[in-house]
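Q: My labmate handed me this sequence with no annotations at all. I'd like to see what the chain might look like in three dimensions before we decide whether it's worth expressing. Could you predict it?
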Amino acid sequence: MTSTAVPATQQSDPTAVVGRRVGQFIIDYLIVVVVAGLGLSLFLPADTNAEGAVEPNALFWLIALANVAIVLGWNLWVWVFRPVRTGGRIYGMQLLGIHVERIDGQQLTAGPMVIRSLLLVVDLLVSGLVGLITMAASERHQRVGDMVAGTVVVRD
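A: Here is what I predict for the chain of 156 residues:
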């Protein structure tokens, strides 16, 4: 007879949420990509020449700058400001019952969240294997961004 019970080591470790973190990242990344795609769709009415190449004019550059502002603002909201306002919960984290908190027990602020966000670049190297391996191998299941920012992701 096989048991489907969670091992005692995982029951007592609130950071043993690697699978949820992968799901959370996929959900949040899709949300970010949809908004970025909507911003890029602003380029659809751009002027093109006979070969189909975009002719950059003043409107093109205005739309480009607006798109950069939208994408940066949205990324800041999703990865930094929303979690600070919601007790460490990005959209996917909220759905999957996990949240970010500081290791030192202090209130979560934008500083650590900015660090975590910037270091996603490192964690996503080799198709995300760097982050996945560090989460699986580290004692607190932290990715590189968490280690540098002094944060940890735990079950609600």
